[in-house]
User: What shape does this take?
Amino acid sequence: MPFERYFQPSAPPSSLPFSPPAPLDPAGSPMLPASLPLKSACRIVRQMVSELVQLFGDRVMLRRDRRRLSCHVRQIAMYVCHVALQISMSDIGEAFGRDRTTVGHACHVVEDRRDDLAFDEFVSAVERIVTAVFGLSEVAAHD
Assistant: This one.
């Protein structure tokens, strides 16, 4: 399993008042802390999306049934893992128990839904929160 490219050894906390830029691997992608397995990172993102949907659901995620809502939460979580955390689709698929093509489909669905301003603002907020939680300050913003 090629998870090593996303991890780095844990470093002692810095005394700086701000967080330094996230370390990059040789390919230029940000790396998650070594103490956090990739599957756990994806689960954390999914739980964060679920909680935020429950908070702002009536304005952003008007859906008819619970099953469909859980599918949309999973799709947004997969998208955010790929875009904000820059994890490969294959690794995300494995973490979510899905195929990489399912992750690709989820990313396309979320991108298509970003034409709606409220949904775009919601996904942008989720990206910012995930970026802040995982300390990836150098992740490019989505336009």
Notes: Residues 1-22, 138-143 have pLDDT under 50 and may be disordered. Residues 33-134 form a domain with the Chromosomal Replication Initiator Protein Dnaa; Chain: A; fold (CATH 1.10.1750.10). The beta strands are 7-8, 32-33.
